[in-house]
Amino acid sequence: MFVHEFLENSKQKHPKKTALIWGDQRLSYQELDEVAARFASALIENGIQQGDRVVIVTPNSVETIVALFGVLKAGGVFLVVHHSIKEKKLSYILNDCGARAIVLFQNQVPAFRNVLETCGSLHCMIVCGDEEGGQPAGHIPAVSWSAVQKNYSPLAKSPSLSEQDLACLVYTSGSTGEPKGVMESHACMDFASGSIIRYLENTADDIVLNCLPLSFDYGLYQPLMVFKFGGTLVLERSFMFPAAILRKMEKERVTGFPGVPTIFSLLLQMDLGAYDLTSLRYITNTAAALPVSHIERLCAKFPQASLYSMYGQTECKRVLYLPPHELKKRPGSVGIAIPGTEVWVQGPDGERLLPGSIGQLVVRGRHVMKGYLNKPKETASTFGPGRSPEEGVLFTGDLFRQDEEGFFYFISRVDDIIKTRGEKVAPKEVENVLYLLPCVLEAAVVGVPDELEGEAIKAYIVSCDPDLSAKEVINHCKKHLESFMIPKLVEFRDTLPKGSTGKIARRDIV
Fold first, then answer.
1. What's the pTM value of the predicted model, to 2 decimals?
2. pLDDT tens-digit map of 355-365
3. What is the arrangement of strands in the sheet containing 77-80, beginning at the earlier edge strand?
């Protein structure tokens, strides 16, 4: 199945049913599909062709949902990037993927104008939130959101595609500091969505609240899955105001709630007695493992809800899940392979290890992505062929062990990539920003264990200015980095350990 057919098929089954709730707006499947079809027509009539890349920079909103399905209907490839992205990173992504169009809100245009004017591949810009007409950026013509909905008829039929064609790119940090574009085909996304829906036992009666960013694949898959099983999605901008989210959950009788440890930590600090949350059927957690104490407390606060601990990677969406009935028996486990896949622990020589041994986790299945865009070496070292043409093998770079009953336990990462708040952060990318401070002589960034974030980002700095403070360093990083990449901790040292080649040895610092 093609990903845009998730929406189209549910429209055929439940045209009048509410598909999306955003604030006071309630869009039925028929309304949402029509708006997305108009968006697709606008793209095609402005020169976007099959396979073209469209970058979506808007935050969680109706416009973002419409844009990604509109791109797919037009036969294009979408990628949602975080709206707080900095100019340098956006420029890299636009040029790396050869973006032909970009979607953003009017108030974002000034911040990104310089980047847009220097990106030669961009052919058009869709500007949301502008009723008077979009203002072009250099050579790039702009089409306003109002014009998209008023001046274009809904696309009658999408271009002919293969299920192996790309549907989406998700950029994730690499060990070199350059983001890597993970290539997701329609077939990969269809299988991954279906497998997760299967173990969560979703039905058209489910109402899912998503406050995770759509630029984060965990957040992105919430609308994809909900529209695939014909449920209702309650979309929120973020979890910044927990009480308002809980009131919305109560009002809409939400049955499914995906979150990350930082969200659940806030919930555990609140008195939930004022809210009727008895409709909640399941809670899911990924990004970082929940502390066992938090699992116990969450289960006590939501006795009627099933809690799913999960593990995944951008390169294959989801790998493992722990069936809720196993929580009490093995709360430290992240479970078993998701339906329709195979997972094992492998030693350094490629041998499959026996239970109890520690090795790299390897994943086989149709949900394994096609590789990294424009990075053949990284693709060759991370992905391998499966037993059949439609599947692949992923070498996760994470160390695991498996118990005698087949349940998996995360140990640590093989490489230096930091996984914090569900995002991957390359130390070098943060270090490059630290070196922009003239007084920084040496810098190293590592991940340190953190109960809420999985790993917290810590910066070690050798400075020639004794008055440089941690606060100044963090404020500097806020100007250049996305929020999840900013160091939480800063420590000053007289020197940093180095290897035989003179390279700073991150693993010897702590």
1. 0.85
2. 999 999 999 99
3. 142-144, 124-128, 101-105, 53-56, 77-80, 166-172, 180-185
